[in-house]
Please model this.
Amino acid sequence: MIWYPYEQMKTMKIPYEIVDAQGVWLYTREGGMIDSVSSWWSVIHGYKHPALTKAIVEQAQRFSHVMLGGLTHEPVQKLAQKLAAWLPGDLDYCFFSDSGSVGVEVALKMALQYYVNRGELRRTKILALTHAYHGDTFKTMEAGDDADYHFILDVYGEKQDVIHIPAEIPALEDAFLRHHAQLNCLIVEPLLQGAGGMRMYDISFLERARELCYEYGVLLIFDEVATGFGRTGYRFVADRVLPDIIVLGKALTGGYIGHAVTVARQNVYAGFYDDDAAHALMHGPTFMGNALACSAALASITVFETEGYMEKIARIAEIIKREMEGFTDPRIREVRMMGACICIEVNEAETLAGYQEFARARGVFARPFLQYLYAMPPYTIGEKELVRVLDTMKAWFHRPQADADRRGALPEAAVFGAGVPGELQAQNG
Ligand SMILES: *Cc1c(COP(=O)(O)O)cnc(C)c1O
Model:
């Protein structure tokens, strides 16, 4: 029995069973649908990309995994080298882990211990943003601020170690003024808050945060698990504002194997580099630096670099803007777009009930949550497919009322996408 994520198992709908996938298409036995969410924002090259598959297969023929405790190997060395060269500034020191949540845990632990190592024992607090999402493990839930994910923490009473502020400069300045002596870090999802509802804010907030963090000696952590690798239209938001620690996950391996990396700057690394053994970072996920994951990540970065991905992303942003700007409906609170992300926030979550089936009947896989109907497609999506995704979103608001009344009960096999996988052309490019 599978226990599915974020689901009330008693009432959940039967999930679509995927039997094949290629390019932007997912296939059930009935037909294809465009994956408009890139498997939780990770599959940036689409499915079955030959370069990534080849990298994984070739590495599997050597070995799939060896631990990093006392051992090392070429894929992890090459990936660390590549990240150090590719990431901005002196973000050079790579600590690998198996998921984004753990990567954030590592960043938070680094920030805390950085000060403990210096004997600054009062710096126990984390500054974070309202509506933040940083993962589902306990400390990341605490750093997060989204009742829909984290409400169980309420039984512990008020959070002791985390202060939440909105992404607004006055609130930021006020928090630094009042709490700077107790803060070890400020952690943010830069520019785009994903699971908290695709909320977007201005870069000036991050620029001011950078100044204040330098001024008060507080470490700035960018959780770019969702925003990294181009999603916002920047390669990394860190290209614009340099954090002390960055966390990457999701698209790190092109979404092929779960992996994450916490990358620190020289100043952070120096805080641990010491003759005192107790100043070491005592952390070590079993599967950190997994050789298959590292090989996939290296191939993914090579494709990203050599196949004009920033232009692909800019083009997606353009098409989104062209198709969606000015789109309104009385049920819509706001339409937000940034880079390769579009979100329609509605007033009532109920407005989106039945959307998944509606989209599926039009050859699109979508997974709206709460009041948010969004798309974050693979960057390899063609114009025709992207327009279909966006048209489907718009059509939901324009559909005849009779359709709305039958919501959730649309026929299974209405209009599906392309034919069977075998007949498909490569969707990449
Ligand atoms: C998804 C996500 C995480 C958690 O990553 P997992 O791999 O699911 O543990 C952390 N931070 C952000 C911003 C995310 O979007």
Q: What stands out?
A: The mean pLDDT is 93. The first strand starts at residue 20 and ends at 22.
